[in-house]
Write a structure and sequence with these properties.
There is one protein chain. The protein has 3 domains: 20-140, 3-Layer(aba) Sandwich (Rossmann fold); 167-293, Rossmann fold, CATH 3.40.50; 307-430, Nitrogenase molybdenum iron protein domain (Rossmann fold). Helices cover 42% and strands 15% of the residues. The protein has helices at residues 20-28, 42-56, 69-74, 77-91, 102-107, 111-121, 143-158, 181-192, 226-230, 246-256, 269-283, 289-309, 320-332, 363-369, 383-389, 413-430, 437-440, and strands spanning 3-5, 34-39, 63-64, 95-100, 130-134, 167-174, 197-200, 235-241, 260-263, 313-317, 336-342, 357-360, 375-378, 393-395. The strands form 3 sheets. The chain has a 6-stranded parallel beta sheet with strand order 1-12-11-10-13-14, with helices on both faces. The two termini are 48 Å apart. This is Nitrogenase iron-molybdenum cofactor biosynthesis protein NifN.
Length: 460
Amino acid sequence: MSRILSQTKSAAVNPLKSSQPLGAALAFLGVEGAMPLFHGSQGCTSFALVLLVRHFKEAIPLQTTAMDEVTTILGGADNLEEAILNIKARTKPKLIGVCTTALVETRGEDTAGDVADIRLKRAQDLPGTEIVLANTPDFEGAIEEGWAKAVTAMIERLTRPGEQVRQSKKIAILPGWNLTVADIEHLRDMIENFGLEPVILPDVSGSLDGTVPERWVTTTYGGTSVEGIRELGTAQYCIAIGEHMRRSAEVLRKVTGVPYVLFQSLTGLKSTDRFVSLLSAISGEPVPAGVRRRRAQLQDALLDGHFHFGGKKIAIAAEPDQLYQLATFFIGMGCEIAAAVTTTDMSKILEKVPAQSVQIGDLGDLETLGASADLLVTHSHGRQAAERLGIPLMRVGFPVFDRLGSQHKPTILYQGIRDLVFEVANIFQANRQAPTREELCPLGKRETPDGSRPSPLSRP
């Protein structure tokens, strides 16, 4: 069990984490016809919007209630109502996802009561539009908690309660925030290979996959349908991926009785084998030949790549579940975790991270703790630390804005692990330094009785 070291600094040096509201907005962006709405100031929304646009290189639908000094003092209920009505009139979304910020949370506003009043008073103005509230203050948690809270809120608000007739081939999937567009596409393909029908919530692979629509769309133009969320109770099983999705899966089970299985990571051979075996058991079908072939490819990649991983020191800074995902991958390849830094201590998964200690901190802590590492692993804001230390950087997580295609890189299941092995091995090869003469011939360091050093080629 790793030791969790609390943050002791008064200020963040090169911040690591993104806020809860941003994580909630990202989850709402995985729903078809959705519009995330930040209940706070324009600055909060603008900052999140810039990060999302830079990461995905897409037009991101995101609105704000534009709280100012007066409404901050007197209350923001009117701003919230006006924003919802304007969004409904101009964009006609199927879902408005309200994400609270520190501004209204610190003031102690009853946002849930305000949303309930708006639904009641303005029912005739909001036909066909659902309003879902996620309480996501900036001053605690991070992107991981925001994502999970938004998913839980959508299940609580939209999913039809009670035991329902189950569809034997239908599987509800609750992916963690750290799964890329390519991961979710690959996940869907894997499930469909067994003849099963996945309903993925949220499904960013349908809304943030880099396609260009034929016409301008003011909301999200892909993802999980609102009707699909309502009918989650007809699924035979639920599969949650990541410890932060446990709460959402438990709420779904409480509301509908659908049983769930949680995988803390799918970036490992054993966990992927368990996942594939589960799909085979649910479907009653044998593992397809194509899946077996990809497993064989991964085995070969592990054989080819492990020479480059052995003994390497890795420094990782990421959200808790992604930290666990990556740390277990590197340990499985024969590496050592020299530094593990994360954003918050709210996740139980941190106790399972295979490192001596996990520091709650920022990228300044990563730079200090990872000075002797062979590889830094974090998002694009870690590039300055990598340059100062002269250590290569592997970009993961959010945001990645100085490289293209980060969302199209798979990291899970047989194919994703294979590609991850190749990516890291190639980084090590590209940054390999030629050994010194002393390293090639340790005996050359011996001194003869007369004080001279023998030639490495001479006999002892």
